[in-house]
Amino acid sequence: MKIGIISDTHGNLEGAELALAKMGHIDLLIHLGDYYEDGIRLKERLNANIVMIKGNCDRGPQGEEELVLDLEGLRLFLTHGHQYEVKMSLNRLYYRALELGCQIALYGHTHIPENIKKSELLILNPGSVAQPRGGSRASFGLIEIREGKITSEIIEL
Q: What are the structural domain ranges in the chain?
């Protein structure tokens, strides 16, 4: 299973569509918030399989603030990250993912890509396709799950 991950599109569908074109065939797209509505628009335009969560800039009742997905025998924790203070430390995110029995934690919010393995947990932030920060470039994430093995990468636009 090939999963594309984007975050922090902030109304920039052009950046999101460029990322999608660069991903090639994916089985699932995950949008990690800021702007939830962009995920809805992408789903309508592309008729794609998309899972979305809300970020700190998303208002209204639509969407969840965090989700756990069971895919290919693994559990993925999805959050925008602001509730876990990811700009300060990844500790709260890490322990919440472990508490939920997850092998993968995906977050956004910082606009800075991150792809690390901490113990048995993969922690990935795809960065932002629209407003990169911290000297990074616009980017997205890719995860492949094959026979229980996980590979992950950050790709710049």
A: 2-156
d(CA 40, CA 104): 24
- Which contiguous run of DSSP H or E holds residue 76? strand 74-79
According to CATH, the topology of domain 2-156 is Purple Acid Phosphatase; chain A, domain 2 (3.60.21)
Contact 113, 127 (CB under 8 A): yes
Contacts of 53 (CB under 8 A, 6+ apart): 31, 32, 33, 36, 63, 64, 65, 66, 67, 78, 79, 80
- Round the CA-based radius of gyration of the chain to a whole number and report it: 14
Q: How confident is the model over 46-72, as a mean pLDDT?
A: 89
Predicted TM-score (pTM) above 0.70: yes
